[in-house]
Amino acid sequence: MRIKICGLTRSDQTTAIAALAPDLLGFICVPQSPRYVDPLQIQAMVDPLPPALTTVGVFADASLAVVAHTVKTGGLTGIQLHGNESLDFCREIKQNFAQTEVIKALRVRNAADLDQALAYGAVVDTLLLDAYHPHQLGGTGETLDWAMVQGFQPPVPWFLAGGLKPDNVATALGQLTPQGVDVSSGVERSPGDKDSQRVAAFITAVRSLDFVG
Ligand SMILES: O=C(O)c1ccccc1NCC(=O)[C@H](O)[C@H](O)COP(=O)(O)O
């Protein structure tokens, strides 16, 4: 099970959280977000990290040029597309970043959204299912309707996101079988201010399930 901790904004917290051995760290490249960090801030946070850690820039309807500049300057190894990017745009991103993990996030309201997610599975490396919120793109703390997602089996690995916390992630993984989990606000004191103890509790909760049957 891969673990992605998303929405890091501070170097000291990023280094401390990297030492807890998550698999991916996410940096929000969406200017409207309270967790936004610019390419040079990302570079400062990513530079000291072990290369095995996948470092993901999270974008929403950014241009190819902005994505390219941020990935290069920040030294990122993953791209998450969290807006209303088309299939064609996702395909173009994948063609331009062949060595980079491309993740398409879908905010799920109904079964039609899940069907749409399956289509994106043909053009990206990984999918991420997040909760829908009418006014915010991500980091909302809202949970998905897990029952609706049961049986979701895309052609590529997928992450469960949306409202996960140290004390509900085991329940979620008892109902669903994603290849990864993503958390942001469930391990924060306030937007962008990560609590290492909560991150450690989240990682322990997930890793302890890796040893169960
Ligand atoms: O976190 C943000 O502020 C954000 C803003 C704009 C687009 C995406 C954003 N976050 C993307 C993520 O991958 C979050 O981890 C995901 O939405 C889950 O968040 P949470 O429900 O708080 O765990």
Helix content: 25-40%
End-to-end distance: 13 Å
Bound molecules: the ligand O=C(O)c1ccccc1NCC(=O)[C@H](O)[C@H](O)COP(=O)(O)O
Low-confidence stretches: none
CATH class: Alpha Beta
Please provide the ordered H/E string of secondary-structure elements. Answer: EHEHEHEHEHEHEHEEEH
**The CATH architecture:** Alpha-Beta Barrel
Q: Mind summarizing the main beta sheet? A: 8 strands, parallel, barrel
Average of the residue pLDDT scores: 96
Instruction: Output the CATH homologous superfamily.
Output: Aldolase class I
Number of strands: 10
Q: DSSP helix count? A: 8
- How do the strands of the widest beta sheet line up side by side? 1-2-3-4-5-6-7-8
Tally of structural domains: 1
Oligomer: single chain
Radius of gyration: 16 Å
Structural class: alpha/beta
Strand content: 15-25%
Question: How does the overall form come out from the CA principal axes?
Answer: globular
- According to CATH, the fold-level topology is TIM Barrel
3D architecture notes:
The chain has 213 residues and is of the alpha/beta class. It has one domain (2-211): Aldolase class I (TIM Barrel, Alpha-Beta Barrel). 34% of the residues lie in helices and 22% in strands. The chain has eight helices and ten strands. An eight-stranded parallel barrel has the order 1-2-3-4-5-6-7-8, surrounded by five helices. Strands 9-10 form a two-stranded antiparallel ribbon. Helix 6 (146-149) links the parallel strand 6 and strand 7 (158-160). The chain starts with a strand and ends with a helix. The relative contact order is 0.17. The model has no long low-confidence stretch (mean pLDDT 96). The structure holds ligand LARABZUK. The ligand O=C(O)c1ccccc1NCC(=O)[C@H](O)[C@H](O)COP(=O)(O)O binds next to strand 2 and strand 8. The ligand O=C(O)c1ccccc1NCC(=O)[C@H](O)[C@H](O)COP(=O)(O)O binds at residues 6-7, 26, 28, 30, 33, 35, 58, 60, 82, 130, 137-141, 161-164, 182-186.
